[in-house]
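Q: I'm building a small set of examples for a reading group on sequence design. Run inverse folding on the following structure and report the sequence directly after it, with nothing in between.
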């Protein structure tokens, strides 16, 4: 990896983390919920977007994949926050919300990624091929 590509990936990662923070704060103010809906939305949309990049990877330059997939979407998604939010739910004895967060995030993110791969494959003209 060149120094230039490294810098692009790092800057894209910072932009993704900044976008995550904006979405989390904005939705947190609107929703004011006991459940971490904003983080769920971030991880599901990020998983879908990474699926699109993956599905379209045959038609994309490796540098674009690195910048968008690893940098931007790596910074945007945050499964470590899912872990922390889940532990906090468990400690508050909110077991149903804990399981909804752990299993719901995993299922929704996997489904979104699969749909994203399909959408990216269609866009790149490489469906099932």
């Amino acid at each position: 990896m060149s120094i230039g590509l490294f810098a692009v990936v790092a800057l894209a990662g910072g932009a993704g983390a900044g976008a995550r923070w904006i979405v989390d704060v904005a939705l947190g103010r609107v929703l004011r919920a006991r459940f971490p809906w904003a983080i769920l939305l971030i991880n599901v949309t990020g998983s879908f977007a990474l699926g699109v990049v993956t599905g379209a990877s045959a038609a994309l330059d490796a540098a674009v994949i690195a910048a968008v997939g690893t940098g931007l979407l790596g910074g945007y998604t945050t499964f470590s926050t899912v872990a922390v939010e889940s532990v906090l739910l468990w400690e508050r004895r909110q077991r149903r919300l804990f399981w909804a967060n752990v299993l719901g995030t995993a299922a929704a993110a996997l489904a979104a990624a699969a749909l994203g791969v399909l959408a990216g494959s269609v866009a790149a003209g490489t469906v099932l091929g």
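The helical segments are 3-31, 37-55, 62-76, 79-91, 95-124.
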